[in-house]
Amino acid sequence: DHTPPSAVAGIPGSGSSREPTGTDRKSSTVDLNSEEISPLETALHSVVKVFCTSATPNFFVPWQIQPQMRSTSSGFVIEGRRIICNAHGITDQVFIRVRKHGDATKYRAKVLAT
Asked: In degrees, to the nearest 5, what angle opens at C-alpha 44 toward C-alphas 50 and 47?
């Protein structure tokens, strides 16, 4: 499922089931409430990498912006398909993408609150 997240606060597959860590990822899911999942697996699937492209405003010449910069930070999946992260990781954001642990796909995200 490559549905984009609803925010830097939203990631596909963060509901009640997720993909297993084995080689057969597309054919089965594992219930997060199952006792088969170790605490380490639960923690790894709760952490995401946040990729941010930002442009700092130029306060001396307000009609111009500084060159765009890229940064990365981490975030944690919380209830409601949302992600909580540090504000300094998404300051002056222009474009944000998030990536789940073990998944090469980056999903588009947006900031809901700072």
From this structure: 25
Residue 91's identity, in one-letter code, is T
SS3 annotation, the chain: CCCCCCCCCCCCCCCCEECCCCCCCCCCCEECCCCCCCHHHHHHCCEEEEEEEECCECCCCCCCECCCEEEEEEEEEECCCEEEECHHHCCCEEEEEEEECCCCCEEEECCCCC
Other beta carbons within 10 Å of 23: 5
Structure tokens at 71: 């940064």
> What confidence score (pLDDT) does residue 28 get?
36
CA–CA–CA angle 108, 88, 15 (5° rounding) = 40
Tokens of residue 87, six digits: 């504000």
Binned at pLDDT 50, 70 and 90, residue 33 comes out as low
